[in-house]
Amino acid sequence: MTDVAQTNELLSQSATFGAMTEATKLDWDIIAAHNKVFSASLTDRVIDHLRLLDGDCGGFSVDRLEHSVQTATRAARANKSDEYVVCALLHDIGDTLGSYNHPDIAAAILKPFVSEDHLWMVEKHGIFQGYNFFHHFGMDRNMRDDFAGHQAYDLTVEFCQEYDQPAFDPTYQSMQLEEFLPAVQDLFKSPKNSIYLKSDGAMMGESQ
Q1: Which of 39, 103, 116, 141 is found 20 to 30 A from 1 (Cα to Cα)?
Q2: Contact yes or no for 74/108 (Cβ under 8 A)
Q3: How confident is the model at residue 102 (pLDDT cuts 50, 70, 90)?
């Protein structure tokens, strides 16, 4: 049986166990085949979720989707790497579900696919952005200094000050969201860090 025929055979089936302790190798091969198909559309699901920010201004002068696209546009026009630009595009994607911890949501989505420094930049950008407004609420605007000396400290300062905080300008001519899709697709194609990656770099259920 060819690999394609074998895959199609697996996709035509469902696992039969009711508890994981009852599962067989065939059950998990079936699940792995289905998961490979599901994972291939990850970019579409991420972009669909990002689009939920469309029209939600939250009191700002632009909606959250425009802010995200504008941040990414500014980074792209500064010749930042594709990975950096995708991080810029998705840095606030957690606003819909993480009203009190949106950077953590974005970081969780990006974690398998980006470098340690870019992950830290996204995860900490809320604290670093606070430099620009925490003092208006009687909070410590220098909270970011708790992380002084971290290898990604300057990177995160740069991201917030150069690309994130100025990206609320309603007169700015941003790129179209669709222009970023190839970079997003490329980033989400191959995870670099996952508990489901085997020692040879292949995903669980796949061969290298």
Answers
A1: 39
A2: no
A3: very high
